[in-house]
Every structure is written in structure tokens, then in C-alpha cells.
Amino acid sequence: MARITASVYTSHVPAIGAALDLHKTAEPYWQPVFKGYEFSKQWLKDQKPDVIFLVFNDHATAFSLEMIPTFAIGTAAEFTPADEGWGPRPVPKVIGHPKLAAHIAQSVIQDDFDLTIVNKMDVDHGLTVPLSLMCGEVQAWPCPVIPFAVNVVQYPVPSGRRCFNLGKAIRKAVESYDEPLNVQIWGTGGMSHQLQGPRAGLINKEFDTMFLDRLIADPEGLAGVPHIDYVREAGSEGIELVMWLIARGAMSDVGGGNKPTVRHRFYHVPASNTAVGHLILENN
Ligand code: DHB
Ligand code: FE
Fold it and tell me: Which of the residues 49, 107, 256, 257 could staple to 184 if both were Cys, CB 3.0 to 4.6 A apart?
């Protein structure tokens, strides 16, 4: 059987991708950000996952106001890094896992979650920046990736509760896949930030710290936080954090297993307009 062995949580700031691609990681502004991922890069190499199930949000790149899937699973054999206005990032193409993705779609849809099945999708910074942070500059990503896009851009967006419950269904799906795969689930986006309007530049360290604490120790309670609290406390783009609840809902303790081990925790302000948060939880 396949197993979810760990979950990874990280912000996805596009300027981080640019800093990497333009070789600015050692500059004083960026150095502390990348330092927070040194441990993680080695950890990922040691863990050797077979597949990464990567929960992210598209930023009007693959989708637009013409079509807004709430949850979209990438079932293609590969996904091309998107051109977000400055040309595509010089990063490897993303190799998918169509067989496991199709299995998860089957199981999760039969569990009453409506997923959109996507057989062709370009992937933007929401997916490539987390991969870059965790892998550094590489010729190929270390394993196949199943992109799972969540609408957190155009209201109405899914609740934290629904995301958390979806995570449970994803774990069930993975654990019913008949191959001994080491699967990681990543929740990305966040932390507090607002890119627009009078409150542009908002960052709330107190909220972010609370979110990290409760994501570890009280995910069930955290799942009950309504949208309005994210928007008020974490800014309009802070709502990206609900995606972390999908990954957290897929951890074993939620289904009655042991508490996960906190392998790594990192928080830094600023990176572009956002607070950068990062966590690694291992199943026991
Ligand atoms: C920034 C952050 C984001 O999450 C995003 O999608 C785009 C821009 C920023 O900090 O500039
Ligand atoms: Fe974003």
C-alpha cells in the first residue's frame, strides 16, 4: 500500500523564484529566507519520496475568470512551468503520476468531493516556487508530482473545514493504492499578506504564529476558523493558508494515529510582500 509519510508546508512568494533564478540567494535580503530551507533540502534528499502530492493555487495562469474549479487534480503525464509575464522560469518540467492521480480522483470523488480532472495544465509560481525552495536548483525534480489546484483567488473559496476533510479523503485514497509508494503531501501558499487596496503590505506575525501553533497541535479547531477571520487578520491573500489544512488533514493523527513529529519550523518576515512560513511534519 502507498503511505503518506510526511507533510510539508511553505509559502510560495514569486520573488523567491526570481531570486533563485537570478542567483541572488546570498544577498543580505534573501540569505535569511533561503537559510530557513537548508535543513529541508537535505531532509527531502534523505526522505526520497516516490511522489509529491502538491496542493497549490493557480494565480489566473492555467485558469481564469472563464473557468474556476474549486479543486482540480492534475492527471497529466507532465506539466509545463508557465510564462507569468517574464517568460517561464528556467526550472525543470514537472513529471506527473497519472496512475496514482487517477486513483485518487476515483476515490475522492466517490467520497463526495467534486474534483475537476485536468489533463493539461501549466503550473505557475504557486507550484514551482515550493519545489525550488525544497530542491534548490536542479536538472530534474526529484520525483513525480501530482499538482492539486485550489481556488483561493475568486470568491467563493472553500472553507478551512472542507479543506481539512478533503485531506482525510486524500489520505484514504493514497492508502488504498496498491503499490508501496512513499508519498508526501505539501500544503503551500500564505502566510499573511495582502497585495491590493488600502491594506496592501499587511503582515500579521501574531496570526501567523497562532496558525503554525494550531496547525501542529489543534488542526481540527483551526479548521473551524471562518474566511472572514483570515481576510481580516491575515490579509486578502492570507486565505491561501486554507490549503495547508488539506495537507494537515491527510496526516495519520487526524484519523486516530500517532501525533506527527515536528521536524522543522521556520518563520521569516519579509519576503516581497509576505511573511514566509515553513513546517515539516513527519508521520509516526
Ligand atoms: C506575492 C505573493 C503571492 O502569494 C503571490 O501569489 C504573488 C505575489 C508577493 O509577495 O509579492
Ligand atoms: Fe499567491
Answer: 49
**Catalytic (active-site) positions:** 125, 193
Contact 149, 125 (CB under 8 A): no
Quote the CA–CA distance of 123 and 228 in Å, as a whole number: 28
CATH class of 3-198+207-255: alpha beta
Alpha-carbon span 42 to 65, nearest angstrom: 39
Ligand 1 binding site (Cβ under 6 Å of any ligand atom)? 12-15, 59, 193, 195, 237, 272-274
Distance CA 37, CA 268 (A): 11
Please name the residue whose Cα sits nearest to atom 9 of ligand 1.
Answer: 273
How much distance in Å is there from the Cα of 139 to the middle of ligand 2?
25
Report CA dihedral (114, 68, 93, 27) to the nearest 10 degrees: -120
Distance CA(164)–CA(219), nearest Å, equals 8
Helix (H) or strand (E) segment spanning residue 248? helix 242-249
H/E run at residue 34: helix 31-35
Q: What atom of ligand 1 comes closest to residue 272's alpha carbon? A: 10
Q: What is the pLDDT of residues 177-224, one digit of tens each?
A: 999 999 999 999 999 999 999 999 999 999 999 999 999 999 999 999
